[in-house]
Amino acid sequence: MIEDIQAAIPLGFLLSFMIGPVFFVLLETSAIKGFRAALCFDIGVIVADIIFISLAYFSSFQLLENLSNHPGLYVFGGTILLVYGLTNVFKKESHKQETKIRISKGDYLSLCVKGFLLNFINIGVLVFWLGIIIVVGPSLDNDSNRIILFFSAMIGAYFVTDIFKILLAKQLRKKLTKRRILLVKKGLGIILVICGLVLIVKGFLPKDQLNIEKGIELIRE
């Protein structure tokens, strides 16, 4: 149980720095409207993530059950992560003038709804969670309790990291130049590409080779 939590925390930390519109709106909300407003916005984002995780899990439940009998299905999950990662790696820097996202005055509930909608309309988030579940599911023995614990710990780490981002919003916005943002995107993309390739290779190897579950256990130790 403790091992599952320890494995989930670094992933939650990395997830918090997935550069996108949610990232910048969170920082801008904190700078303009304060800590509580940004916190409400972030809660909406997390609710959308929880829904996506649930949809990804239940849509892939049968797939997870079949992974032990059909290792070739690892190729499916690996391909998802590979494509998602390559998109980040090869996406060119936009030379368009950055447009500021205006945040109208409103109550905390409206900010929460805005956070939810901004995250929920991005179908790429669902694809990302589907790939993550296919990766970690077998290492957690496809146990629903362990999976819930793992993703709860990951979302918890994500939320705590976001709180620090909110507190340091002004400093982060000054330091996040276009060049640095591009490097962060490419770095995260490379990590996803490596995970995807490992998963694809796993699908083509005999069952006793390149055991991802044993690899994760070694990392935990």
Automatic annotation (TrEMBL):
Keywords: Cell membrane, Membrane, Transmembrane, Transmembrane helix
Topology versus the membrane: Multi-pass membrane protein
InterPro entries in the cross-refs: LeuE-type
Subcellular localization: Cell membrane
Domain of life: Bacteria
One Pfam family, short name: LysE
Segments passing through the bilayer: 6-27, 39-59, 71-90, 111-135, 147-168, 188-205
Main location: membrane
Protein name (database record): LysE family transporter
